[in-house]
Structures are given as structure tokens and as C-alpha cells.
Design a protein that fits this description.
Number of strands: 6
CATH topology: Rossmann fold
Helix content: 25-40%
CATH architecture: 3-Layer(aba) Sandwich
Order of helices and strands: HEHEEHEHHHEHHE
Shape: globular
Bound molecules: S-adenosylmethionine
Largest sheet: 4 strands, mixed
Number of helices: 8
Number of domains: 1
Strand content: 25-35%
Strand order of the largest sheet: 3-4-6-5
CATH class: Alpha Beta
Length: 203
């Protein structure tokens, strides 16, 4: 979505979307194709493009999958032009905050082990020559009501739910359904999730 949005909003000469997963790339091509967007199989540790090519690199919800962040930061410094910018979209460990944790508390424990903190990420990117410009934290609406949230969790749970047992998943879903049924239909409360956006520039 970000690749096609950037192609529309920024009108660059090209956008390259890289992911390690072929099924993810197939979905991206199917749902978010654009003449200026090229999807490529590859990894953040070894981006399959030449050096000094890009003005902007965006890591969206992927930093927690990258065990060697210094290596990734060096790779982004390689493909960026001097002064190029990296944007990291994630939730830093110290600000993990989502309704899923109310119903499946073990997901919070698992995410606390997976997600890096802001100081850890900024330090690793500083080792590769990046300077942090801004870090913005905000709550983003994900559904308009708890009922909609329950419907989404029932039909499209995120991949991290595979770490739970079937019994854990069902118990959390039962409690969520009960709270959703109690929510007055006349004043639904939007469900939000916290995101952090770090902007860093390379030297
Ligand atoms: C939570 S999904 C996020 C997908 C998408 N970027 C987004 O923002 O919605 C994490 C993605 O990271 C990809 N991934 C995991 N390790 C990677 C790596 N080393 N290099 C590139 N992509 C990786 C996975 O294939 C998966 O598509």
C-alpha cells in the first residue's frame, strides 16, 4: 500500500518494493500495482539493487524481523544517495499498546521479546552513519468500534496469533465478543493501535 501510495503522492521516477516472501509480493502486485512500482524478492540485508540509487527507504513493520540491524542499516546506507532518508514504521518495545493485549496477554509478552526499543534501533542505525531526525508516536484507528474489531479478529487474525494455542485464541475471542456485545451501538468507541515513525538521515 505504501509503495503505490508513494508512487501516487510523491510522483518519483520509480518505487521498488522488496520483501523476502513471494506470497507477500504476489499480494502486493495483485492489490497495489502501479506503473512506477516494481516489486522485487530480496531481503533488507541484501537489497537487490545498485548503490546510491534511492532518496528514501521505508521499513514498514519489519524491523522486529531483522536480527542484525546494523547490517541492515549499512545496506540501506549503501543503496541510499548521500543525505538519503530512512523511515522506520513500527511500535518500539516501550510503547507497545494494542487492544489485542487486553484479550491475549501472552501476545504482549511475545511482542516484548520481539520488538526492539527506540534506543536500540537508533543506536544500531547510528553505527551505520544515520542521524535520527524525528520520532513521532501516534494512536491510529484500526476499526470504528469494538464490534468491528471483534469481527476483524475473528475473520483475519494477524500472523502472530499462530503463536497461541487454539484454546488461548478461543478464550480471548470469547471475552472480546462479550465486551463487543456490551458496547452501546449508539456510541461505539474506535479501537486504536500505537505506531512510531522514526526518520533518520544518512551522512
Ligand atoms: C508484518 S509483515 C509487514 C508487511 C508490510 N511491510 C507492511 O507494512 O504491512 C512483515 C514482513 O517482513 C518480511 N520480512 C521478514 N524478514 C525480512 C527480511 N530479512 N527482509 C525483507 N523482508 C522481510 C516478511 O516477509 C513480511 O512480509
Amino acid at each position: 500500500m505504501f509503495c503505490s501510495a508513494m508512487a501516487r503522492w510523491l510522483a518519483p521516477s520509480g518505487v521498488v518494493g522488496v520483501d523476502a516472501s513471494l506470497p507477500m509480493l504476489t499480494q502486493a502486485q495483485r492489490l497495489n500495482s502501479h506503473p512506477a512500482v516494481h516489486y522485487l524478492a530480496g531481503t533488507a540485508e541484501a537489497v537487490p539493487t545498485r548503490s546510491d540509487l534511492f532518496d528514501l527507504a521505508v521499513l514498514s513493520r519489519v524491523i522486529h524481523h531483522l536480527p542484525d540491524r546494523v547490517r541492515v542499516a549499512r545496506e540501506l546506507a549503501r543503496i541510499l544517495k548521500p543525505g538519503g532518508v530512512t523511515v522506520i514504521r513500527t511500535t518500539f518495545r516501550e510503547r507497545l499498546d494494542a487492544r489485542v493485549y487486553d484479550y491475549w496477554p501472552r501476545l504482549r509478552e511475545l511482542d516484548e521479546q520481539r520488538f526492539p526499543s527506540q534506543p536500540e534501533v537508533l543506536e544500531d542505525f547510528a553505527a551505520a552513519g544515520f542521524t535520527a531526525r524525528t520520532v513521532t508516536s501516534f494512536a491510529r484507528p484500526v476499526t470504528a468500534s469494538l464490534r468491528d474489531y471483534h469481527a476483524r479478529m475473528r475473520s483475519q487474525p494477524q500472523s502472530k496469533f499462530t503463536q497461541l494455542t487454539v484454546a488461548e485464541f478461543r478464550e480471548g475471542l470469547r471475552r472480546l465478543q462479550s465486551d463487543a456485545q456490551d458496547e452501546p451501538t449508539t456510541c461505539p468507541v474506535p479501537v486504536t493501535e500505537r505506531y512510531d515513525i522514526a526518520v533518520l538521515s544518512s551522512s
